[in-house]
Amino acid sequence: MKFRIVAVGKIKESYLRDALSEYVKRIGRYATVEIVEIDECLSKGTQTEKEIQRVIKEEGVSILAKLEGYVVAMDIDGQQVSSEQLSEHIREQKQYNSTFTFVIGGSNGLSDEVKHRADMRCSFGKITLPHQLFRVVLAEQLYRACCIEYNIAYHK
After folding, report:
1. pTM, rounded to two decimals
2. Which of the 8 DSSP states describes residue 69?
3. Cβ contact 107:52 at 8 Å
4. Pairwise CA distance, residues 113 & 92, whole Å
């Protein structure tokens, strides 16, 4: 099984890179992990609604080119799932898919095209997190999902 995390932007802070690396290493007992970083489309000056939509669309085109397997768009308006539900969903879907691609958009969100391409739109709740920190949270939840499936004591 393979987890791909396709995310807009690079992680700049070393403590977040270290945390992500730790979870990727832990997941490695159960699945391979690939992190794919998409360049952020930055606008200059004040962002008008038109400029925000241009950025979302440009990032979306880049994201669409990197999708493979079962696609989960991480979307605040998606279906809220518990750790147990995420684990169960992955377990069910891995009968049909060997690759799971999780998509994290940029600070302006995901394009409609990416949301429509996704097999699932998933939310970890209504809080707002920086997308760099969210990458760590997602990796931790993927590790937790593996622990739940294999009955490892990590998940309580």
Report:
1. 0.94
2. S
3. no
4. 25
